[in-house]
C-alpha cells in the first residue's frame, strides 16, 4: 500500500512541476465524450468524440472521432478493434509551418484491470495503423501506446483519476509523445460520470498544457428480459 501511495504521489507531484514548463504561451483545452454501450453479455460498442483547442475556447486544433467493437473476455479483460477519423488544423500562429491534415486510423487494443486495496488499476495496450493525408501527399505510419491509469474512489460520488501514457513510433525516432494527466471525477448517475483535470502533453522539444473536460456516458443497450 505504501508503494502504491508513493506512485500516486510521484505522478501528481510531477504533474504539478511540469505545469510550470510550458512549450506555448496559451493554455489549450480538450472537450471529450466517451461511451461504452453493452449490446450483449460479451460485446459492447465504444464511441468517442474529442474537440481540441489551442486555447481554452478558441483557435481550433483537432477533431477526433473514434469507434470500436469491444469483446469482454471477462470483467477485467477487454479486447477492442476500432477506427478513428482525425482532422487537424495546424494554422495556429505559433506553428506557422504546420498545415491542415486528415487521418484515418485503425487500432487494436487490449485492457487489463486489477484492484489493490481501494486503488483501481487499468493497463491499456494499443497498436495503431495511421493513414495520413497532408498537402495532397499520403503516408502510412505505425505506433504503439501504453497507458497506466489509477483511479481512487473518494466517496460514492467523487473520485481521483491519474494516468501516464507513452507513445512509441514504430518507424523513425522511437519516442512520439508522453501524456501525464490528473483529474477529479464525479459520478452523476450509475451510467454517467464527468471528469475535469489537467494534461501535460510532452513531445521532443515541446510541452503543451491542456485543460480536459470529459463526459462518460455508458447506458446498457441490451434488451431487458
TrEMBL record:
Classification via InterPro entries: DUF2490
Keyword hit for Signal: yes
Key words, A-Z: Signal
Signal peptide extent: 1-19
Xref: Pfam families: DUF2490
The protein's name in its UniProt record: DUF2490 domain-containing protein
